[in-house]
Specification:
The protein is an alpha+beta fold. The protein has nine helices and eleven strands. Strand 5 and strand 6 form a beta hairpin.
Length: 327
């Protein structure tokens, strides 16, 4: 009997543990846990020496050159004084391990464990430190060059692709689909107009919400990790995710959003300048980011199930978009 096609396979944690034991010089593996299913699979590893993270990328999302770009960026940032969770080479010197599974080849990478703790940002001082840290990251990344290709975080990626996915799940809500299409057209026009005046473009982290993806140490320092969404894009888009996260976590309290956003900008601009045009673009990219996330939820429903993305979910998203004042 032939094997039935699959979209997604989960690697055995025991087999992953054996692979790590055989292929890395990090001591004896004493504990392995399947830690998180997200845009990839994450395993928490403990040895008799230290703790580590092993990430296995999805075959449908990341090719080998995609991942090589990310790892090259991490090593570059670390070499230039940015605290990041670095990849760890195997005994053969290679950073990537290939696993042949039903849906294709999935690649695994061992990372340093980011010591510290995730922390929601509610204090202006923390927002300032986060902005300062991102300023240093962007400043260092301005000098980065890679041998590997990586997708561009452009209008095709951020607007056209998610809108196409959304339409396929909302054929029964034609009025809302038309509204989103008109909104997308306006967003693209706004971005095109801003581009004419000049927008900062460079390597972006891609997921700078400030709630996770950064570990805070006891002395207030930050270690950044999870660069899976990195790529070349507008810096205004990269920082717009931080503002969107503040809107969501404050439950759209304008006073708190502005307080934390102002602190973030002061921290960022203490290291690296932002033009008035880039700042004017942030509200547009906040809407763009929310549209992209909307599409991502539907796209990943194939892996996590459609149950949470029901009519109530669609209603909440549409209410958000219809409240926007700058589109």
């Amino acid at each position: 009997m032939s094997l039935f096609p699959v979209t997604y396979s989960l690697l055995s944690k025991q087999a992953v543990g054996l692979h790590i034991q055989r292929n890395y010089e990090i001591g004896s593996v004493v504990k392995i846990q399947y830690f998180l299913r997200g845009m990839n699979d994450t395993y928490a590893i403990e040895t008799d020496v230290d703790k580590y993270i092993f990430r296995i990328y999805r075959a449908d999302r990341r090719s080998r050159p995609d991942i090589e770009f990310e790892l090259e960026l991490l090593r570059f940032l670390s070499a230039n004084g940015i605290s990041v969770s670095e990849p760890i080479p195997g005994k053969d010197g290679a950073y990537l391990s290939g696993f042949n599974v039903m849906e294709g080849t999935r690649y695994g990478v061992l990372f340093q464990y980011a010591e510290g703790h995730e922390m929601p940002i509610h204090a202006a001082a923390d927002s300032y430190r986060f902005g300062e840290s991102i300023g240093h990251m962007h400043k260092a990344a301005d000098q980065f060059e890679s041998r590997f290709a990586r997708e561009r975080l452009d209008m095709e990626f951020l607007i056209d692709q998610p809108l196409s996915i959304i339409r396929s799940y909302m054929k029964h809500r034609l009025t809302d689909c038309n509204y989103l299409s008109e909104m997308a057209t306006e967003l693209k026009k706004r971005i095109s107009d801003l581009k004419v005046q000049g927008l900062d473009w460079g390597v972006c982290h891609g997921d700078l919400h400030g709630n996770t993806n950064a570990a805070w140490t006891e002395d207030g320092k930050l270690i950044h990790y999870d660069f899976d969404l990195c790529g070349y894009g507008w810096r205004a888009y990269d920082i717009a995710e931080f503002r969107l996260a503040r809107e969501i976590h404050s439950r759209h309290d304008p006073e708190e959003v502005e307080r934390l956003w102002d602190a973030f900008l002061r921290g960022y601009c203490s290291v690296r300048s932002l033009s008035e045009n880039d700042l004017a673009a942030v509200p547009v990219f906040v809407a763009v980011r929310q549209l992209w996330l909307f599409g991502l939820c539907f796209r990943d429903s194939e892996f996590v199930g459609i149950a949470d993305f029901d009519e109530g979910f669609i209603d909440s998203k549409m209410q958000y978009f219809k409240r926007l004042e700058y589109v």
